[in-house]
Amino acid sequence: MGKEESPQIERRSTRHSSATISKNEAGTKSNEPLPPTVNDLFYGEEEKPISLDDVVSSFPGRRIQIIELMRVLGPVNCPMVPLFIYGDSSTGKTSITLQIFRHLNRPFVYSSCLTCYSPRILFESILNQLLLHRKSMANSYLSAKRCERPSDFVNFLREALISITSNLQGNSGKSGSKKLDRRASGNMIYLIFDNLERVREWDKSSIMLPFLLNLYDILKMPEVGLIFISNTSPDTYYSSMGYAEPTPVYFPDYKEDDLRQIFVKNQENKKLYSSFLDVVLKPFYRITRRVDELSTAFSQLYKKYCEPLSDLGVVPNEEMKRRLFSNLQPHIAPSMNEIFKVSSQPSTDIGATKEAKQKSSSKKSGLEVTDQLDLHMSTSAKYLLISAFLASRNPATLDASLFDSTGGSDSRKRKRKPSEKTSEQKEAAEQELLMKGPGTFPLERLLAIFQCITSVAEGSLEEEEQGSDGLRVQVGDNSLMSDVLLQLSSLCNANFIVKGVSCPLEGSTRYRSTICEDMALKVARSLKFPLSKYLYRR
Amino acid sequence: MGREKPAERALLLLRSRLCDPSFVFNSFSDSSDSNYSKLKFIISSSVTEACNNSILLLGPRGSGKVAVLELVIRDLLLEYPDMITVIKLSGLLHSDDNCAFKEIARQLCMEHQLLFSKMASFDDNAQFMIAMLRECGLAHKTIIFVLDEFDLFAQGKQRLLYSLLDATQSVTSQAVVIGATCRLDADQLLEKRVRSRFSHRKLLFLPPTKEDWQRLLEHILLLPTESTLPQDYAVEFNAKLQNILADNRFKGIINTCMNIDSTVNHLLKFLFRAVSNMDLATGFLSLENFKAALSNIQRQPKLECIKDCSVLELYVLVCMRRLEIKEQNSYNFNSIMKEYKSVHDSCQTSDYYAQNVCLWAFEHLLQRELISFNDNRGNNQSIEFRPVKLLVSSHELHQGLKSYRSCPAILHKLLAG
């Protein structure tokens, strides 16, 4: 997996390191770094171009796509129509494209709509690269051109492209000079737009998307190749005005055999790992096909798998395989159900953790927190959490009966309810509950429930005193109340309670609890609080 | 070795032909009733007779409106040098009036070697344009305004269109306003004051007929025999190509291609893929190249997506479909999970996973855009409770399951009902 994302990083670092190296060398002569040259547009200065076989062999299962891409790009100096590369994430779209450019040794400008998150940043990053402009102290980290509108961008872009292409043509003309002769690059220049699907969420997407997709027709320059890389298929790019569809290249998800090759590729003990894969790949493959996710799951499991082994270089025989398998088997099923838990250890693959972090929902973080709940949450925060949960789940009309002075549940009412409803109504209500999710509640109700359950809890501890000394409990409550609002806001920040929009009729802010029942039960258990007693079940 | 060189050069030639619209549309320029001749006649008469004019070019995207126009302008510039100034605007870039006037002023300044001021205001630029129009009119020079994506100029207050078309009403100016758009009702978008000043001349660009396609194919693909390419290679290439063109199977491919989209652009796209597929070792186009190109272009993204899904993701999709069959008008992740559980309870499948794993599969499906939320107002509901919908039809789902390798048989049964 490391290799999946590494080329991108490698490229950045090589460009950067080439800059710093030249700086150091120049340091003896002058303090000025070498002015950037047109060579900066090539893949990594020091690296040798790689052969096509290397590209193919470093990406198992991608031979067809690589050949297809090579064909569309064509031999030197071939004009091309815009290209649209799409496929699910972590199928190697970006890295293969960049490696192909390394192989072809042609100039290109790479910009990702993920990092360039607004039109202006995107435009300026492209122009900076084309105009060989490097942000530095001397120019106080400004871009080469300030440009916000597509119209300005097209003018600047055309100028820059013309100067670059004439420069390239000049280079290929006097090929004997310097080291440029190794660059049989031709006079084409390629603009790569990665993560195009992001543009759809931009504010100005209704202008930007048709603009980018029609850029080729607007520029009318045959020596410019446009390459779009996207997570989603072309049919998800709706636009009211339409565009000339670029020619598509599809990267399908990896098949099981490809995955096996990918995982075995970077392993030290290939035999051992493949016997490990025999066991785990099939069941996991049924859940997900993403390399990034699988690799996180496998890295943990592989450690478990190797635990009984003293020597990791051993070649496993049948008997040993069986032993290792029986050792691992109990771990597979639970790990499958926790496949997407992010490990806290620094893993080698950046891509996987990045993906996982991005997506981690409140629910998952909730699960992780439960393990160390006692350490991180004060008692009053736990009570607050439970009362929020109750306020979200129980209908407000039942509060009085659930939390009346006796503190017990109203058994009479509960028995009456089901008989009253027909089963059909009940089903509809259940459906509604599933759809609506947890309900909202005003702050007052939360505080009221909070006070009730804390008083009950205190009461249960000092049952004998309760009747005579009601005032004491009140005092105890007040001390709990003092920072309850602070606790509430920290729970809101932790995403356990969501602050909703204010109700238009009442004007007060409404809250909603997002924790699931399991978690609430766990919290209640840690407090020895009888939660189920207070939970209204339909 | 001797073969490879001409093959590469032939490929280069073909590809640059395909990427050069002026070459492609050249083939239409000779007949007298083509759009090229009509357009050329209109523009050249207004140039020679020193009058104003306005035209709308209408046609589907990729039918070559702008390409033909550029061809006409190129020829006219050769015919009447120093009499024509061309100002090109695109609705995608200059739909904002302010921006459009600025661009006009910039291009006028470029053309006439004047100093362009970036700081000039909207009014300055508008007045500058009117003044320039008058000056050019006095010098018997025609200014041709090309407005690509014309419909986008009609979005705002249409001040640009008004001042351009108003200028064409006066005798002192000499301007031709040409709009190109895909919207056939573009003139209905104009305000009354603008519409009354428009000449209502419209040129319709129809997709080429079958015979035109045949002509185009030959025009584009046949290699010139008198050129730098070795003659025997070119002759052999052309002979093989003629064989292919006459082949019935090839005609079938072209027919399917035409049935999808019969604009010139689509043909070019198709041919581009076919030409790129050419085997450089043999150096000739083959029928397989065209077949491969058709399958390259004819994508079924949703079907591909379904084929890429993992088994668990398929389960989620099938459960959603089942909910739809049950006529539940809205459902969310929790109701899907309920369905999934009931399916599992009744059939005892081996693929039963915990809720958070399913949630992950659910998120994958969202990312693949096989499903989406009903409303994209991200109100603070968590994902589980937001109502979702399928973005694939039941037919596509059936197809997808059928072509899925080693699809669990139970899924077919579940989907059937």
TrEMBL record, chain A:
GO biological process: DNA replication initiation
InterPro entries, per the entry: AAA_16, ORC5, ORC5_C, ORC5_lid, P-loop_NTPase
Cellular component, GO annotation: nuclear origin of replication recognition complex
Alphabetical UniProt keywords: ATP-binding, DNA replication, Nucleotide-binding, Nucleus
Compartments reported by the entry: Nucleus
Residue ranges occupied by any Orc1-like AAA ATPase domain in the UniProt entry: 59-213
Ranges of residues in domain Origin recognition complex subunit 5 C-terminal: 377-535
GO MF annotations, alphabetized: DNA replication origin binding
Renumbered residue ranges of the record's region Disordered: 1-37, 347-368, 400-434
ORC5 lid domain segment(s): 273-325
Subcellular location, principal: nucleus
Record keyword Membrane present: no
Compositional bias per record (Polar residues), positions renumbered to this chain: 16-31
Family per record: Belongs to the ORC5 family.
Protein name: Origin recognition complex, subunit
UniProt source species: Parasponia andersonii (Sponia andersonii)
Automatic annotation (TrEMBL), chain B:
InterPro entries linked: ATPase_AAA_core (IPR003959), ORC4 (IPR016527), ORC4_C (IPR032705), P-loop_NTPase (IPR027417)
Keywords tagged on the record: ATP-binding, DNA replication, DNA-binding, Nucleotide-binding, Nucleus
Principal cellular location given in the protein's record: nucleus
Family annotation (Pfam families): AAA (PF00004), ORC4_C (PF14629)
Nuclease recorded as keyword: no
Membrane-spanning residues: none
Coiled coil: none
Subcellular location(s) per record: Nucleus
Domain Origin recognition complex subunit 4 C-terminal: 216-400
GO biological processes: DNA replication initiation
Gene Ontology molecular function: ATP binding; ATP hydrolysis activity; DNA replication origin binding
GO CC annotation, single: nuclear origin of replication recognition complex
Residue span(s) of domain ATPase AAA-type core: 55-201
Keyword DNA-binding annotated: yes
Taxonomic superkingdom: Eukaryota
Record family assignment: Belongs to the ORC4 family.
Family matches, as PANTHER family: ORIGIN RECOGNITION COMPLEX SUBUNIT 4
Record's function text: Component of the origin recognition complex (ORC) that binds origins of replication. DNA-binding is ATP-dependent. The specific DNA sequences that define origins of replication have not been identified yet. ORC is required to assemble the pre-replication complex necessary to initiate DNA replication.
Protein name, as recorded: Origin of replication complex subunit 4
Species per Swiss-Prot/TrEMBL record: Parasponia andersonii (Sponia andersonii)
